[in-house]
Amino acid sequence: MGKLIYSMITSLDGYAEAAEGDLGTGAEDQEVHTYIGDLFRPVGTYLYGRRMYETMVYWETAHTEPGLPPHILEYARDWQAAEKIVYSTTLESVSSTRTRIERTFDPEAVRALKAASDHDLTVDGPNLAAQAIAAGLVDEYHLFITTSVVGGGKRFFPDGVRLDLELVGQRAFASGLIHAHYRPRQVQGSRVG
């Protein structure tokens, strides 16, 4: 059975997308990018909303750019090898292999996908992740926290959902970025999440 992982870069004040500008620095360096590549290499399926897919589809052809360092090429190969499901009511077609479009996010279909998977899955983007969190589907949270406070935007965690999490790992990088890895706490024999 695969785990469903939610991971995003987030500002120090908890925003996965800034209302204005970017989330700050810290994720661009080789140390961080290599760490992220190693951490998510076992992922077999990415669940994307349209906007996140349109950002990540760069990796379909990244390997064709001359002079890219080995850690970038390795990430591109890993991304290309994984399955991708894009949840969108407006996207007409996809431009990457191993990719399909679903018109609605069906929690039971995702639950079945997790149960049948030999590899982990990720849900990427705060809007899609909010649906997975509300349905109790997320098994792990990976926050990559920048050193910036952006004051508004789309929150990493959705409003209106209570989660009790336990910290299972952390790492600070020279750039100032912090990786915090959480799992839902077990409550009376059932999972909260």
UniProtKB/TrEMBL annotation:
Pfam families: RibD_C
Signal peptide: none
Source organism superkingdom: Bacteria
Domain Bacterial bifunctional deaminase-reductase C-terminal: 3-177
PANTHER family reported in the protein's UniProt record: 2,5-DIAMINO-6-RIBOSYLAMINO-4(3H)-PYRIMIDINONE 5'-PHOSPHATE REDUCTASE (PTHR38011:SF11), DIHYDROFOLATE REDUCTASE FAMILY PROTEIN (AFU_ORTHOLOGUE AFUA_8G06820) (PTHR38011)
UniProt name for this protein: Dihydrofolate reductase family protein
Organism: Streptomyces albiaxialis
